[in-house]
Amino acid sequence: MQPNPSIPISQRWLQRPLTPASYFRVLPVSFAIWTVIVVLKAGQVLMNDAERQYVLPLQHYFVWASLDLYSWAFFTPLIFALAFRFPFTRSNWLERLVFPHTLACVACLFVQALVRATGGTIYAEHFEQPAPWLSMAIANAIGFAPLYILAYCIIVIFAAFLRLQDEIGKREVAQAQLQVRLASAELETLRMQIQPHFLFNTLQAAITLVQEDPRAAEDVLLRLSQLLRISLDQMGKNEIPLARELEFLDLYVGIQKQRFGDRLSVAIHAEPAALDQLVPPLLLQPLVENAIRHGIGKHKGSDLIEVFARIANHGIEIEVWNTNSTIDESTDQLLLRGVGIRNTKARLEQLYGPTAALLLRSLGSRGVVALIFIPLQHAPQPQRPVAVGAAS
Which of 29, 140, 357, 379 is the most exposed place for a label (fewest CB within 10 A)? Predict the structure, then answer.
């Protein structure tokens, strides 16, 4: 399996178990880091000798610095793997300190002493005064042990930091995914609350017309079947083009006109540019239903309901006007009552956050307007504009 280059190195160190392939992927990074340390140490020793006016050939400083430190370039990927595999926690820090980290640190010191003594003996035989192998190994193990233990601890601490960063990232991703699932579930719940509410009201209208006007009742049921078919088609969708939403609204208005006859007039005024914009399904029907119920449904005379849709202020503005109703309460108070409007506002907030809005305002002594603002959302496949004007 080829490694994914988009995965950070810190996450590659998390692989279980450590494989030769993953080890050799990390090794160049380790060598690059330790090369910098080797150069710094060689330079430091060189400057110290220069102050004492006893400067050896330049290669001497880099060879001994390499023998002292390059072994840790090979150890570092292994130490990282151990630190990820056996992290310190409050409950097991003492156990982890003994196994595997103390044992691993001792093993690193032992191997490094062997490498340094062997390499140093070979180099000294050719370029310097030879020294006994055993004494060189013991001197290295004792003299440099505190420094190497510190190096081991720094590697473990850095690995713990990377592991913590990975855990935080995973938790943030999991939290974001959970929030998306919760929001989707809430949207579906709100939509399922609207659909039965609308369905029961429509069936009630059909029942009322069965004896008074059977043909009108038949037309209502046919339109209801078309509405249900559209509802099934858009089930599971959080957004649909406004043109599709207006088709749904046209069917609903046709049902209401069978009930109220010429007393009810509905007109739709939508800019062609607005028809392809995405809106939540069943956005307008609850508002129009609410306008009918509180307008012509409670007051004598006729009522005109107008729907306006236009592109403005980097979004789509939708207004639902009716001339035969009044409101004496604020939007917040009205939202405490009525399933349709309350759920419509909640769905807007879930989908678009604070950038969307739903307000209800009075139009003087009589008349109410519902104002909706949705940020621009272009439909993936724009549809041709539907006919607008007076609804059937």
Answer: 29
| Helix ranges restricted to H, the chain | 9-12, 20-51, 58-85, 93-96, 103-127, 133-143, 145-212, 214-233, 242-260, 284-294, 331-335, 339-352
Give the side-chain half-sphere CA count within 13 A for 136. Answer: 20
* pLDDT for the residue 188: 54
Q: Name the pLDDT band for 73 (thresholds 50, 70, 90).
A: very high
Q: Which domain holds residue 95?
A: 9-175
Mean of all residue pLDDT scores within the chain: 79
Distance of CA 93 to the CA centre of its chain: 34
Taking the alpha carbons of 122, 123, 124, 125 in that order, is the dihedral positive or negative?
positive
Report, as an integer, the average pLDDT of 219-243: 79
CA distance 276 to 236: 19
Residue 26: CB partners within 8 Å, gap ≥ 6?
A: 9, 12, 13, 76, 77, 80
Of 153, 175, 197, which marks where a domain is finished? 175
pTM: 0.48
